[in-house]
Amino acid sequence: MASVIPRKEEKLLDVKIGELPSWILTQDFTPNGIAGAFQRGYYQYYNKYVSVKKGSFTGLSTVLAAYMLFNYCCSYKEFEHEWPRKYH
Amino acid sequence: MNENLFTPFTIPMMLGIPITTLIIMFPTMLFPTPNQLINNRMITIQQWLTKLTSKQLMNTHNPKGQTWSLMFISLFLFITSTNLLGMLPHSFTPTAQLSMNLGMAIPLWAGTVVMGFRNKTKISLAHLLPLGTPTFLIPMLVMIETISLFIQPLALAVRLTANITAGHLLLHLIGSATLALVNISLFTALITFTILTLLTILEFAVTLIQAYVFTLLVSLYLQDNT
């Protein structure tokens, strides 16, 4: 199924899984391109959840929860053996 | 036990690459730039807090010292946000590393001292001798004051590092003590849990206070030398 908008401007969450490899090939991986992707992602989240007329704490707390999850994943190896188990 | 106690303070790695720089840059994402006169709620709250803090910090300086306001406010915001983010479980606190705090303290202190010596050499040198000392004590006192001058950046850095590290360590220890006591005696575990709650409140206060103290002291050093 061909997409309606040009392939390059489609957001990642709108790309179908079958089209994922071709989507990746159209993205530019130069440092400028990667910086642009991060900037676009940041402003997509910011304009949708934070800079609204009646923004609430959830806009910020989702980011903090994701940060906590990220740190959990990064340090998983260190507390893997601390779980209360009968056999370590 | 030895290895487990300090593992929260090791450099975070992702696939073998240290991601410390990313974690240090993360708080910048939480402070968006205001680009309108009336902004969204998050920016408004941050602006209000920033104005409150900057007035409190900078009202004792003369105009020359107030040119440092941007430096002080960004320093305060950085330390506060980094410390507060470090209170989240499993997160890494960059300000608990002595290397980073030395990197913040030494240039700022050196900037104030060099500015003082360049612009008001006589007054800066006169600071090395308190008023009204007996004449025969002067050489020793000058040496003592010089040493205390050079201790200042070290004290700034070590104060912040020690406070944050000690607080985190205490929370870890008392938390694991509570968990270990649950099977042994529930009442003691409840007492320990109360202590843990109080300590957490104290930790949150410490994060803010330490940022304030750091910035305040640098501003004091500036006042001496402006």
UniProtKB/TrEMBL annotation, chain A:
Gene Ontology BP term (one): proton motive force-driven mitochondrial ATP synthesis
Name recorded for this polypeptide: ATP synthase F(0) complex subunit f, mitochondrial
Oligomer and partners: Component of the ATP synthase complex composed at least of ATP5F1A/subunit alpha, ATP5F1B/subunit beta, ATP5MC1/subunit c (homooctomer), MT-ATP6/subunit a, MT-ATP8/subunit 8, ATP5ME/subunit e, ATP5MF/subunit f, ATP5MG/subunit g, ATP5MK/subunit k, ATP5MJ/subunit j, ATP5F1C/subunit gamma, ATP5F1D/subunit delta, ATP5F1E/subunit epsilon, ATP5PF/subunit F6, ATP5PB/subunit b, ATP5PD/subunit d, ATP5PO/subunit OSCP.
Pfam families: WRW
GO CC terms of this entry: mitochondrial inner membrane; proton-transporting ATP synthase complex
Natural source organism: Monodon monoceros
Similarity annotation: Belongs to the ATPase F chain family.
Coiled-coil regions, chain positions: none
Any one Gene Ontology molecular-function term assigned to this protein's record: proton-transporting ATP synthase activity, rotational mechanism
PANTHER family for the chain: ATP SYNTHASE F CHAIN, MITOCHONDRIAL-RELATED, ATP SYNTHASE SUBUNIT F, MITOCHONDRIAL
Alphabetical list of InterPro entries matching this protein: F1F0-ATPsyn_F_prd
Function: Subunit f, of the mitochondrial membrane ATP synthase complex (F(1)F(0) ATP synthase or Complex V) that produces ATP from ADP in the presence of a proton gradient across the membrane which is generated by electron transport complexes of the respiratory chain. ATP synthase complex consist of a soluble F(1) head domain - the catalytic core - and a membrane F(1) domain - the membrane proton channel. These two domains are linked by a central stalk rotating inside the F(1) region and a stationary peripheral stalk.
Keywords (A to Z) from UniProt: Acetylation, ATP synthesis, CF(0), Hydrogen ion transport, Ion transport, Membrane, Mitochondrion, Mitochondrion inner membrane, Phosphoprotein, Transmembrane, Transmembrane helix, Transport
UniProt subcellular location: Mitochondrion inner membrane
Membrane topology designation: Single-pass membrane protein
From TrEMBL, chain B:
Keywords attached to this entry: ATP synthesis, CF(0), Hydrogen ion transport, Ion transport, Membrane, Mitochondrion, Mitochondrion inner membrane, Transmembrane, Transmembrane helix, Transport
InterPro entries according to UniProt: ATP_synth_F0_asu (IPR000568), ATP_synth_F0_asu_AS (IPR023011), ATP_synth_F0_asu_bact/mt (IPR045083), F0_ATP_A_sf (IPR035908)
Gene3D superfamilies: ATP synthase, F0 complex, subunit A
Coiled coil: none
TM ranges: 12-31, 67-86, 98-117, 137-158, 170-195, 201-222
GO CC annotations on file: mitochondrial inner membrane; proton-transporting ATP synthase complex
Subcellular locations according to the entry: Mitochondrion inner membrane
Keyword Transmembrane attributed: yes
Reactions listed under catalytic activity: H(+)(in) = H(+)(out)
Domain of life: Eukaryota
GO MF annotation terms: proton-transporting ATP synthase activity, rotational mechanism
Mode of membrane association: Multi-pass membrane protein
CDD domains membership: ATP-synt_Fo_a_6
Oligomer status and interactors: Component of the ATP synthase complex composed at least of ATP5F1A/subunit alpha, ATP5F1B/subunit beta, ATP5MC1/subunit c (homooctomer), MT-ATP6/subunit a, MT-ATP8/subunit 8, ATP5ME/subunit e, ATP5MF/subunit f, ATP5MG/subunit g, ATP5MK/subunit k, ATP5MJ/subunit j, ATP5F1C/subunit gamma, ATP5F1D/subunit delta, ATP5F1E/subunit epsilon, ATP5PF/subunit F6, ATP5PB/subunit b, ATP5PD/subunit d, ATP5PO/subunit OSCP.
Recorded family membership: Belongs to the ATPase A chain family.
Protein known as: ATP synthase subunit a
Gene source species: Monodon monoceros (Narwhal)
Gene (UniProt): ATP6
